[in-house]
Structure formats: structure tokens, C-alpha cells
Design goal:
This protein has 452 residues and is α/β, with parallel strands linked by helices. α7 links the parallel β9 (198-202) and β10 (222-225). Helix content is 37%, strand content 15%. It has 2 domains: 5-226, Rossmann fold; 247-451, Rossmann fold (3-Layer(aba) Sandwich). The chain is elongated, with a radius of gyration of 24 Å. The protein is built from 14 helices and 17 strands.
């Protein structure tokens, strides 16, 4: 019988960089995390069900903006490789799960990616491994899905998830499980990833200690929590805080418009207050994986406890309505110029959900395009990060980016994403009409511009 590893020996493997790390899901969260570990000389195995991604990574190529091929090559020099073979989970000491957690159309959590991942990896787990869920989710997911799946698969071979109520709390005779939410901020060039504190909630003390040691090797600070559920709730609070404040300023923008006031001027003045105020900015809606999704995750879970999160749900509804507000502004501006939306040619600038990122997830720009099309407009787009836009969970567009040289051919240009590469002065000069949902033309004075 093989003697079980002890916690101090596991932590020592992390310290001397002999611990092997597995990252499941090599997207906007998993791939940057992989590179952080590789920079600290950890040997990382990346897992993904997308064979094309795996092939590109193993060929030294990148598919994410700001991650260059040389970053992949540097990781490969210290042992990084990608695979679709989940049987290789047995080779690693830590398994970090970074898969999507989207919403179904009725705003209920779609946990299919987490469930499928756990079903794929659980048969290959062994005692002494650490499993960490990083995907944003509702409180209770780690226990309800990760732990139960491991214990169900491990029942026949006697493999369990470690709990504190044991005789020797230093022996790793089971699987350690924790939750540690990703805190990625795509496009942020100011805050290094290492400087973002890593929240950790272990099922037991061994899992918390192991996760703190592992993440402490690549992050400057770890924040231990009392449980996975507390860590899960922390991530929701962070993102719901943003959702609510963005909804507030989106609503205030519409009020200011009716009053003939410039909300951007108002926000700038309010931001001079050195206490009690943090500036948030309006836009065509919210995008990315977290802000449009997380409020509904908590609302769904709260209902199981007899609670209705009216404030949170309202914020989500306000933000979801913003693409409609943009389209209404376009229609109104066209009518004022003697034209209808039906039959108009409209160019949407920017389809990414955020400035200077190559990320379409939950982008309000895509909704703006679809609403314009429903209104009878002929719609095109331009985005330097997306040559084409095809099919997604919530869109089916099949469009190709239109050159900016054709701006003057359109009846209206809608600024939906304020990429920094755009020359807004030139765009306004060439355009017939500009509807600006991002205040990107704030330094341009022209009667052609309508801000919304």
C-alpha cells in the first residue's frame, strides 16, 4: 500500500517547483493563468476540449490578443504542453478549472461546462491532488458539483474529498478541493496580474493551505476564506457592485438626456469629491463573462432561500435595456434628418465588449446590430480585433469587418466600442451622422454627433 503524502511534503513540492499544474480551459482566464505558472518555472499541462486550440498552442501560436507567440514559447521551454486527453489528469498535482459558466436564455445558470469537466476528470483523480474551481458561479457550486462528482466517481476505489474531522489533519489521503475565483480584467495594462489578490476558500484546512501555497507562488497576496461558498459569494459581490453602479449611471444618463444635461460633465465633477464617490461610466450595455451574468446567478440562488433580489435584478434589467436605448437614439437622429431606420445603412464601430480587447462574450454591440437589423436597417461593422463575426450562443450574424475608408457611405455610424486605434476626429469628419454611446468624440465639436 502506497503511503499517503503529507501536506508539508506537498507544499515543499510547490516551493521547489516540482509540483505539476493542470489548467482546464485555455481561454481568456486559463491561458494567462498557465503563463503565470510557467513564468515561475512550474511545468503546466493545459487541457481543452477544443482540438484546434490545443494544436495551435503546441505549435507555439496564440489566439488571444496581447498574448504573443513568444509567451507560449517561453512556457514551452519550462514544460508547458496542451492536450485534449483528460486521462493525463493523473499526472498533475493541482487541477485548476477555468471553464465558462454562462446563462440559459431564461437567466438560469448553465453549469453544463463545469459538470462536463468534472465528469471528464473525476475518473482520473488520485489522493493528494488539489482541485480548484475558478469559474464564476453561485454559492454552493463547489460542494454541489465538484465535491459530489469526485465522491461519486471515487466511491468504488475509496477516494474521498478531504474534510477537517480526521485523526491526522496533515495526511493527504483524499482529494483537496477549493474555490478561487478568477479576477481577470481583459485590456487592463495598469495592474499586473500578480498584484491582484487571490481569494481562496477550501473545503478543509489542507485544501486552503495547499491552494494558498500554490497561488502564493504566482500572486503577491492570497486572501483565505472560511469556505468555498464564501469565496463564491465574494466574486458575485465584486461583479454585482459594478453591475448596480453601471445600471445607476446608465439610468442617470437617460434622465440627463431628457433634461438637456451632459452626464459625462456631471460624472467628471462628481469624481472630484475625495470621498464617498467612485466614478462609473454609462455605455451601450455591459459585456464580458461576469457583469451581465453574475447578478442573475445570485438571484437564481437566492430564490432557493425564499429571497427575491429585486434591487440586483432591476440593475440587470436596466443594463440589458441599454442596446435598445442606443438603437432608439439612432432612429430618432435619423428621423430628425428626414430618414427612417428602415432602409438606412448603419455602420457599428466596435463589436468587442470592451475597448482594446478581442473578446465578444456578451457584447452589447452584437445586440445593437441585431436590433438595428430588426428595425430594417442594413448593418455593417468595423472592429480591428475581429475580421469576421459568425455564430455564437446568442448571435448568428455571419459578417465581415468593413474598412473604415467606407465610413462616408453610411447614413449613420454608431460608436459601440471605443477602441483606442480609432481616429474619432477623422471618423466624424467623414461620416454623415455619428451616434456615440461611449463619449469617444468628447474632444470633437460637430453637429453631426449625437451622444447617447
Amino acid at each position: 500500500m502506497i503511503e499517503a503524502m503529507r501536506l508539508d511534503a506537498w507544499v515543499e513540492r510547490v516551493r521547489n517547483r516540482t509540483a505539476r499544474v493542470g489548467v482546464i480551459g485555455l481561454g481568456y482566464v486559463g491561458l494567462p493563468l498557465t503563463l503565470l505558472f510557467a513564468e515561475e518555472r512550474f511545468r503546466v499541462t493545459g487541457f481543452d476540449v477544443d482540438a484546434a486550440k490545443v494544436e495551435r498552442l503546441n505549435a507555439g501560436q496564440s489566439y488571444i490578443h496581447r498574448i504573443e507567440p513568444e509567451h507560449i514559447a517561453a512556457a514551452q521551454r519550462v514544460g508547458f504542453e496542451a492536450t485534449t486527453e483528460f486521462a493525463r489528469i493523473a499526472e498533475v498535482d493541482a487541477v485548476l478549472i477555468c471553464v465558462p459558466t454562462p446563462l440559459y436564455p431564461d437567466h438560469t445558470p448553465d453549469m453544463s461546462y463545469v459538470v462536463a469537466t468534472m465528469e471528464s476528470l473525476a475518473p482520473y483523480l488520485r489522493a493528494g491532488q488539489l482541485v480548484v474551481l475558478e469559474s464564476t458561479t453561485y454559492p454552493g457550486t463547489t460542494e454541489e458539483i465538484v465535491v459530489t462528482t469526485i465522491e461519486r466517481h471515487g466511491a468504488e476505489k475509496g477516494l474521498t474529498v478531504l474534510r477537517d474531522a480526521v485523526a491526522d489533519a496533515a495526511v493527504l489521503d483524499g482529494v483537496m478541493v477549493a474555490f478561487s475565483p478568477e479576477r481577470e480584467d481583459p485590456g487592463n495594462l495598469i495592474t499586473p496580474r500578480r498584484d491582484v489578490p487571490k481569494v481562496i476558500g477550501g473545503v478543509d484546512r489542507r485544501a486552503s493551505a495547499a491552494a494558498a501555497a500554490l497561488y502564493g507562488a504566482i500572486f503577491h497576496r492570497t486572501v483565505p476564506m472560511s469556505s468555498p461558498a464564501a469565496a463564491e459569494m465574494t466574486k458575485l459581490l465584486e461583479n454585482i457592485y459594478r453591475s448596480v453602479n453601471i445600471a445607476l449611471v446608465n439610468e442617470m444618463k437617460q434622465v440627463a438626456e431628457r433634461m438637456g444635461l451632459d452626464i459625462w460633465e456631471v460624472i467628471a465633477a462628481a469624481a472630484t469629491k475625495p470621498f464617498g464617490f467612485q466614478a462609473f461610466y454609462p455605455g451601450p450595455g455591459v459585456g464580458g463573462h461576469c457583469i451581465p451574468v453574475d447578478p442573475f446567478y445570485l438571484s437564481w440562488k437566492a430564490k432557493q432561500f425564499g429571497m427575491q433580489t429585486r434591487f440586483i435584478e432591476l440593475a440587470g434589467e436596466v443594463n440589458e435595456a441599454m442596446p435598445g436605448h442606443v438603437v432608439a437614439t439612432v432612429e430618432r437622429a435619423l428621423v430628425e434628418r428626414g430618414q427612417t431606420l428602415a432602409g438606412a445603412k448603419v455602420l457599428v464601430l466596435g463589436v468587442a465588449y470592451k475597448r482594446d480587447v478581442d473578446d465578444l462574450r456578451e457584447s452589447p454591440s452584437l445586440t445593437v446590430i441585431e436590433l438595428l437589423q430588426r428595425g430594417g436597417a442594413t448593418v455593417a461593422y468595423n472592429d480591428p480585433f475581429f475580421e469576421t463575426v459568425g455564430h455564437g450562443r446568442k448571435y448568428d450574424l455571419e459578417m465581415r469587418s468593413t474598412p473604415l475608408e467606407q465610413v462616408g457611405e453610411f447614413d449613420c455610424v454608431v460608436i459601440a466600442t471605443d477602441h483606442s486605434v480609432y481616429n474619432y476626429e477623422a471618423i466624424v469628419r467623414e461620416a454623415r451622422l455619428v451616434v456615440d454611446s461611449r463619449n469617444a468624440t468628447r474632444d470633437v465639436r460637430s453637429a453631426k454627433v449625437v451622444r447617447c
